[in-house]
Amino acid sequence: MIGRLNHVAIAVNNLEAAIATYRDVLGASVSAPLPQPEHGVTVVFIELPNTKIELLEALGEASPIAKFLERNPDGGIHHICYEVDDVIAARDKLKSGGARVLGDGTPRIGAHGKPVIFLHPKDFNGTLVELEQV
Ligand code: CO
């Protein structure tokens, strides 16, 4: 069902410092920060030859990554995103197998303008999983 690894998202408390680490220490090309108020995060995209890294910084009071950053003050891997051909079909198959989909299960438009859902980390080895329809 799942296809390519679309991205690994890393939550950070200091986006400028994280950008500098990826750009200056690791020599990656890093996009300009993109505030996404509807998702409660500011994102930068790092294009690698085989996948992407996204650095997420909390934006606003009700950011969905605020609690994670409280628990992980140095930052940390927040979720991984796999590509699927049909997010509705994937959701229904997973739900029928007992996996928990976050929210009401309705796909939302994610950071790349594509429909996404999130799967409960307790059902996937402690990892928050995003499925993105490509
Ligand atoms: Co993501």
Helices and strands in order, then pairings?
Elements lengths: L4 E8 L2 H11 L8 E3 L4 E7 L4 E7 L7 H6 L4 E9 L2 H10 L11 E2 L5 E5 L9 E5 L1
The structure holds cobalt (II) ion.
Annotation keywords:
134 residues, binds cobalt (II) ion, 3 helices, alpha+beta, 2,3-Dihydroxybiphenyl 1,2-Dioxygenase, domain 1, 8-stranded mixed β-sheet
Description of the molecule:
This protein is α+β, with helices and mostly antiparallel strands and 134 residues long. It has a single domain (5-133), classed as Roll (2,3-Dihydroxybiphenyl 1,2-Dioxygenase, domain 1). 20% of the residues lie in helices and 34% in strands. It is built from 3 helices and 8 strands; from the N terminus they run βαβββαβαβββ. Strands 2-3-4-1-5-8-7-6 form an 8-stranded mixed β-sheet. The longest helix is centred in the first third of the chain and has 11 residues, at 15-25. The chain is globular and about 45 Å long. The two termini are 13 Å apart. The mean pLDDT is 96. Bound molecules: cobalt (II) ion.
